[in-house]
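tokens incoming
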């Protein structure tokens, strides 16, 4: 039974108001419909400290209430639709950068800080957090850690799991758990930090995050090579077996080619964050390969390259559906080309950004019908399934996620996941049903 049905939403609101103050508690009748597709009103709580959040969780545990952690609520379209939620516990007012050591290149911030806000602070010291997922500009650090989404910079710098060095989290009963630390070196023993990354709010409330940083590149050079799928495949193979170092390498198609005004079906975007000498060498090598393969080449640098990636973000993050494909890099071009050709039969606007070095592709859908969205998910899963890959919905409407499982079939590690959930949240009160296999 939903906790607010047992106690009454007014009673829950009143108790929480007594606990942390009425200005931090509200009843929302529409939020539950918008986020979860449920008609029952929920209580939204906005604590101003980790201590207040802990006291809220102690009370919700006592009452048996279900809880969904949230920040800017921009990442709620990922994961399965959970069971009815009683309380949304927000990080909105946990929005401070706490400790920043430019010399050590580490930063600690509360989970409600947005990625844009953090990057602005770091830029003053010519440093940055090398994460560029296609998400709303309002997306918070807590949301990024909870979803573990990544973007093209993963090619060189890795993803959220590689850059997160510590967390402060609250278990469903309010207990504080600190993992990792504010130093880059690992400590002997099991890395608990990675347990919470990508868990979609089903294990704990993330209150604070520590990241390792990177210096802003002194020189940026961007090469755009346009051609056919076969040419893209040959180019990617040459890069893989070369000494070139790409900071980002994406094969773009399905409308994304217009960022380059190319008439060819694919554009490979390869960026270098090396020094000017190394970047020039890389560009010269790509120029030779473009000529040999019959591909068109354009080179951008500095502000022009930055504007390219900003346009990429602006075009993609409002998409209605995002499907993430993970496959062996050697099979990437073949799979996304078949998907591109299939999409031509649909009215849905399909844009593909494929990491030919990382083996991760994102398929962005806008417009069309729900049936077409379902068809694209089915095609994606059929194709990656041929090579042992996975297709996961990173963003979709409540209706689509009520129709198709966001994660597809469970893997061999599912029993382990169930055991972790049972240990940390035995009563299944944190975002029940949102994660893999209905965890």
């Amino acid at each position: 039974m939903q906790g607010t049905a047992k106690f009454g939403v007014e009673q829950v609101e009143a108790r929480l108001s007594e606990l942390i103050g009425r200005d931090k508690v509200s009843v929302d009748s529409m939020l539950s419909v918008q986020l979860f597709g449920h008609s029952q009103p929920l209580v939204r709580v906005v604590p101003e400290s980790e201590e207040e959040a802990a006291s809220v969780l102690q009370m919700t545990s006592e009452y048996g209430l279900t809880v969904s952690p949230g920040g800017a609520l921009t990442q709620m379209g990922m994961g399965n639709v959970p069971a009815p939620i009683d309380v949304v516990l927000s990080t909105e007012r946990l929005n401070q950068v706490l400790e920043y050591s430019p010399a050590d290149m580490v930063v600690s911030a509360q989970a409600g800080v947005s990625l844009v806000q953090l990057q602005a602070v770091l830029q003053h010291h010519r440093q940055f957090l090398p994460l560029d997922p296609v998400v709303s500009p309002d997306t918070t650090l807590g949301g990024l850690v909870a979803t573990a989404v990544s973007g093209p910079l993963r090619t060189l710098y890795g993803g959220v799991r590689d850059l997160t060095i510590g967390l402060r989290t609250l278990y469903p009963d309010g207990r504080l758990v600190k993992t990792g630390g504010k130093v880059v070196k690992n400590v002997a023993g099991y890395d608990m930090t990675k347990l919470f990354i990508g868990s979609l709010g089903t294990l704990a409330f993330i209150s604070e995050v520590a990241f390792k940083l990177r210096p802003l590149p002194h020189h940026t050079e961007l090469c755009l090579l346009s051609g056919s799928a076969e040419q893209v495949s040959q180019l990617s193979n040459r890069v893989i077996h070369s000494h070139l170092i790409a900071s980002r390498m994406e094969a773009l198609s399905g409308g994304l080619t217009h960022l380059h005004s190319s008439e060819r079906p694919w554009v490979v975007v390869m960026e270098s964050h090396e020094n000017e000498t190394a970047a020039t060498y890389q560009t010269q090598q790509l120029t030779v390969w473009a000529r040999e393969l019959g591909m068109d080449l354009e080179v951008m640098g500095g502000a022009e390259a930055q504007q390219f990636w900003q346009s990429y973000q602006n075009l993609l993050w409002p998409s209605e559906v995002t499907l993430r494909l993970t496959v062996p890099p050697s099979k990437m071009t073949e799979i996304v080309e078949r998907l591109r050709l299939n999409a031509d039969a649909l009215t849905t606007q399909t844009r593909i950004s494929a990491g030919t070095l990382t083996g991760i592709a994102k398929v962005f859908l806008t417009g069309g019908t729900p049936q077409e969205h379902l068809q694209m998910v089915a095609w994606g899963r059929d194709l990656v399934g041929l090579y042992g890959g996975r297709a996961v919905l990173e963003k979709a409407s409540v209706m689509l996620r009520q129709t198709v499982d966001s994660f597809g079939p469970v893997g061999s590690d599912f029993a382990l996941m169930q055991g972790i959930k049972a240990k940390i949240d035995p009563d299944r009160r944190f975002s029940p049903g949102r994660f893999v296999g209905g965890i």
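note: The domain at 97-215 is CATH 3.30.465.10 (Uridine Diphospho-n-acetylenolpyruvylglucosamine Reductase; domain 3).
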